[in-house]
Amino acid sequence: MTYVLDDGELQRILVVMAHPDDVDFGAAGAVAGWTDHGIEVVYLMVTDGDAGGFDDTITRTEMAALRRDEQRAAAKCVGVSDVRWLGLPDGRVEATLGLRRDIARVIRQVRPDRVLMPSPERNYERIYPSHPDHRAVGAAALDAVYPDARNPYAFPELLADEGLEAWTAREVWTTGGPTVNHYVDVTDRFDRKVNALRAHASQTAHMGDELPTMLRNWMSANATAAGLAEGRLAESFQVINTA
């Protein structure tokens, strides 16, 4: 049985994702629950999502700026105000030492109890969460949690030049991977999840009323797998103890 830290034990959670909207598709309901319980949540977006959208009249620079604004608006829907960016090019993310260092830096700055990230594993049952950027960010972020952020001798410049002390995040949650060992009932926060996703208008406006229907179908299946009552809605995760 997987041990999951109780929300009452947590002060801060860091969410590391590849693109604007990734956290909202995978975990906006859970995030809303965390902030409702008084937990500080910080977002780190590795790219600006400049390769997204459907409008050929918008330049990629304009798309990047638009998607930053959309993610900030979506974050407000679930109680998050601190959104940070690394600005890597969308579609070309690799799990480099540089990315590990940049994520470790933010872990040491935020000092989170839990880190949420994409799964580094490919999901052959549902291929869409397994975008190469997602897997690269998941791999780099997991390495940043262990061993980089907690090891004072890894990336010593973070301590010597920036004064960032080592930090151990006790728990990792991943989304979109082939292994699920934890579900969160988000039925009461479904509307906020929908609102967060609708804030990403450049990505979701074309879906119209299909968006909540798609989400209900997907999240109802999660709830059934979790053994929840009919009509409940859930998000799914793999929880990894990293204490």
From TrEMBL:
Q: Which UniProt keywords apply?
A: Zinc
Q: What highest taxon heads this organism's lineage? A: Bacteria
Q: Which residues form a coiled coil?
A: none
Keyword Nucleotidyltransferase set for record: no
InterPro entries, sorted: GlcNAc_PI_deacetylase-related, LmbE-like_dom_sf
Q: Which Gene3D superfamilies match?
A: LmbE-like
Q: Which PANTHER family match?
A: LMBE FAMILY PROTEIN, N-ACETYLGLUCOSAMINYL-PHOSPHATIDYLINOSITOL DE-N-ACETYLASE-RELATED
Q: What is this protein called?
A: PIG-L family deacetylase
Organism phylogeny: Bacteria, Bacillati, Actinomycetota, Actinomycetes, Streptosporangiales
